[in-house]
Design goal:
Layout lengths: L3 H15 L8 E4 L1 H13 L5 E6 L3 H9 L3 E8 L2 E2 L10 E6 L13 H14 L2 E5 L24 E6 L11 E4 L5 H11 L6 H11 L2 H28 L4 E3 L6 E5 L6 H8 L7 E2 L12 E5 L5 H16 L1
Parallel strand pairs: 2-3, 2-5, 5-6, 6-7
Antiparallel strand pairs: 1-8, 3-4, 7-8, 9-10, 10-12, 11-12
Helix pairs in contact: 1-6, 2-3, 2-5, 7-9
This protein binds pyridoxal-5'-phosphate.
């Protein structure tokens, strides 16, 4: 499962910062959310099983599920996240995959009512809910929203967290909070996969957390990311006015913007490389028909002054 001292530190953090109900015995250390998804899929699914995913949604999650032979059914998200009541009625659905704190990529927060509906659905159907809580620490206008797992009284939620956003992705460290009755199965699959995770960075991070550095770092980075976010939102408003619709700017390190009718995000993003603009087309995160056109704009690693000049270049790229 990983270093006990590290899992104890994560457990303390999750209980206070994310209202997750857990004990260290339920926490498995993995190499990022990606391995968490892979192990979860191996434990829970057989080829042909039906799972619900958000549309639009995280492409790397879809590749894992497709690789596990799952049938992916798309559930549209809106400003309140996934609405399980709007999911087409399929029989024998095994799980729903959600990003309730900050939907990826549109950035909405799942409302309290929808959280309860989702948990009730899971209990009724005997299905699992997989919560990917990848970047919830960085919320700018209010306190972080408590996890969905913390509301669940029936142990139907598998909670996945990562140090990729809170610290940096090349660490490749994340964790799964596993319902108690599934811990043995997760351990068996893990043993068959890579036996256990490397200990060196776990011990380093355990020290980092025990000494209080993580809390201080989050507070510092929330301020820095907040400044970068403001620079991005203000420059988008100054250069584009109401041209773009901005989505999901209350948390995380990226915002999604949607284009008016008639613009093609893949074509613009290809031209953007000549202006040193790396534009992630929003349409790529859709699997179904009629994807929305726009961009996912990351601001985490870009100083405010570079953001301002990049948005100016984006304006001349799109509007001339
Ligand atoms: C929705 C979502 N989940 C998880 C992650 C982090 O993945 P990992 O922990 O494998 O680096 C990301 C990173 O972009 C993400 O967008």
């Amino acid at each position: 499962m990983g270093s006990l001292r590290f899992r104890q530190a994560i457990c303390r953090y999750l209980r206070t910062a994310r209202s997750v109900r857990c004990d260290p015995e339920q926490i498995m250390i993995v190499s990022g959310s990606q391995q968490a998804l892979d192990i979860t899929a191996r434990v829970l699914f057989n080829p042909g099983d039906t799972v619900l995913v958000e549309e639009p949604g995280y492409h790397l999650q879809r590749t894992v599920l497709a690789g596990a032979g799952c049938q992916l059914k798309l559930v549209p998200v809106d400003e309140q996240g996934m609405d399980i009541a709007k999911a087409p009625k399929y029989s024998g659905v095994k799980a729903a995959f959600v990003t309730p704190s900050h939907q990826f990529p549109l950035g909405s927060t799942m409302s309290a009512t929808r959280r309860l509906h989702l948990l009730n659905w899971a209990e009724r159907e005997g299905a699992w809910v997989v919560e990917d809580d990848y970047d919830s620490e960085f919320r700018f206008d209010s306190s972080p929203i408590a996890s969905l797992q913390g509301l669940d009284v029936n142990a139907r939620v598998i909670y996945i967290g990562t140090f990729s956003k809170i610290l940096f992705p090349s660490l490749r460290i994340g964790y799964i909070v596993i319902p108690r009755d599934l811990v043995g199965l997760f351990e068996a699959i893990r043993y068959a996969t890579d036996i256990f995770p490397p200990y060196l960075y776990q011990e380093v991070l355990a020290d980092f957390m025990e000494l209080g550095h993580l809390g201080r770092y989050i507070r510092k980075m929330r301020r820095i990311y907040g400044e970068r976010r403001s620079a991005l939102l203000e420059s988008l408003q100054a250069e584009f006015g109401d041209f773009f619709k901005v989505h999901g700017s209350s948390a995380g390190m990226q915002v999604a913007v949607t284009l008016p009718e008639g613009f093609n995000d893949i074509e613009i993003s290809a031209r953007g490389t000549t202006e040193r603009l790396m534009l992630w087309p929003l349409s790529r995160y859709y699997t179904g028909k009629n994807p929305r056109q726009g961009f996912v704009l990351g601001f985490g690693s870009v100083p405010a002054e570079h953001i301002r000049s990049a948005v100016k270049r984006l304006r001349s790229l799109i509007l001339g």
